[in-house]
Amino acid sequence: MQRLRLRYAKRGRLRFTSHRDIARTFERALRRAGVPMAYSQGFSPHPKVSWVGAAPTGVASEAEYVEVQVVERLDPDALRDVLDAVLPPGLDVLEVVESAGGNLPERIDAGAWRLELPGVSPERLTEAVAALLAAPSVEVERLTKDGRRVLDVRPALVSAQVEVHSSDAGHDAGDLSQPCGILMTVVRQTTPTVRPDDVLSALRVVADLVPPVPAKATRMAQGRLDDEGGLVDPLALDRVAEEV
């Protein structure tokens, strides 16, 4: 069997789609594209598809990952093109590489996020971020299916900086014609996971910052933290193996 690793984007209105529906859509697309999938054994066989840290519902992403196993060798670029053609707009396959082995989730321990706060000036956001970074601990509440849970956001926050928006901010930037502070942050994966809305809650706790309209979050990258606080691309080792 051949293992292939895909990076895909979740854009536009599809950011409101649940991960369960995303998974179903991918499996239908694999069938429509005629991909020779490998299947599990047992009474109810299912295609061998492994998802890695899916973004929360309501969050856009430029860096989602999934691994599929097939029973015939495929050209990664050809698979990217045929699969992208049958997926709905907004669910876009960006890259496919052949696995060089190893465990893909172990190559990811942090994510880079872009948080757009319409109606919040960059100056106001800069003040709030400074207060957040200066705090040794910032506890917030999250409502879960098991009730309210308290978590400390600050240990997971690797870096945070405010960016001035521009008209070419990206594919899924939205309408930034009004004042809009943009927070670029790297968040370490912890247990429990600190989500973008938890970072926004922390800004409210330390600086009483509440955007007048809902903020928009986009995951820009995932990977393993390096010594400078940057992210190492989880597919880098697979690309190197393909070139050898």
Automatic annotation (TrEMBL):
InterPro entries found in the cross-reference section: DUF2344
Top-level division of the source organism's lineage: Bacteria
Domain spans labelled DUF2344: 3-196
Protein name (record): TIGR03936 family radical SAM-associated protein
Origin species: Saccharothrix lopnurensis
